[in-house]
Design brief:
The chain is mostly helical. The chain has 2 domains: 61 residues, Ubiquitin-like (UB roll); 88 residues, de novo design (two linked rop proteins), CATH 1.20.1440.230. The protein is 49% helix and 8% strand. A hairpin with a 6-residue loop joins strand 1 and strand 2. The structure holds iron/sulfur cluster. The site of iron/sulfur cluster (SF4) has 12 residues, from helix 4 and helix 6.
């Protein structure tokens, strides 16, 4: 507890292979938030992680490098939460499914700017009305990436391109 993220990632974890740059670290398991480089000196404790939009959760960490698309990352994690939803309450059961489909549209270059507002609103509803921690935390990867990687969402929705070359969009060459 209290060890900075930078130390865990670069000293204990050995850093990022092949000299690639750091993009984000997701803490706490699939429903944790994605923390950008600007917070690498954050000490790892419950309160500090919550302040930057993430959680301690399982204590796990997933580091993404510059080759990752953060919209695709958010889609990956909400897909997991959607599949783990027990279905007992509507906000989680229906909300995670809607969030996943909205992210699918964004990644495919089919979304409009108003979809981003809908996505954010949906996250807020699911977070505040779900019955248990799964639904309440499921929006974290989306909200944190909307906050810290707004430019990537903008590129997908407005410019119809994936800056990392991960998402398969018409008219864009996909990274090999
Ligand atoms: S929030 Fe919890 S109770 Fe509600 S559907 Fe999701 S997993 Fe089930």
């Amino acid at each position: 507890m209290g060890i900075p993220l930078r130390e865990i990632i670069y000293e204990i974890g050995g850093g990022i292979p092949d000299g690639r740059g750091f993009k984000a670290v997701q803490t706490g398991g699939p429903s944790g938030g994605c923390i950008p480089a600007g917070h690498l000196d954050l000490p790892v404790d419950y309160e500090s992680l919550v302040k930057v939009g993430s959680i301690m959760g399982s204590g796990g960490m997933i580091v993404t490098d510059e080759s990752s698309c953060m919209v695709d990352v958010a889609k990956f994690f909400i897909e997991f939460c959607m599949s783990e939803s027990c279905g007992k309450c509507v906000p989680c059961r229906v909300g995670t499914t809607h969030m996943y489909h909205l992210l699918e549209r964004i990644c495919a270059g089919e979304a409009e700017e108003r979809d981003l507002a809908t996505l954010e609103e949906l996250c807020d509803v699911v977070r505040n009305t779900s019955l248990c921690g799964l639904g309440q935390a499921a929006p974290n990867p989306i909200l944190s990436t909307l906050h810290y990687f707004q430019d990537e969402y903008h590129a997908h929705v407005v410019e119809k391109r994936c800056p990392a070359g991960v998402c398969h969009m018409a008219d864009q060459e996909v990274k090999a």
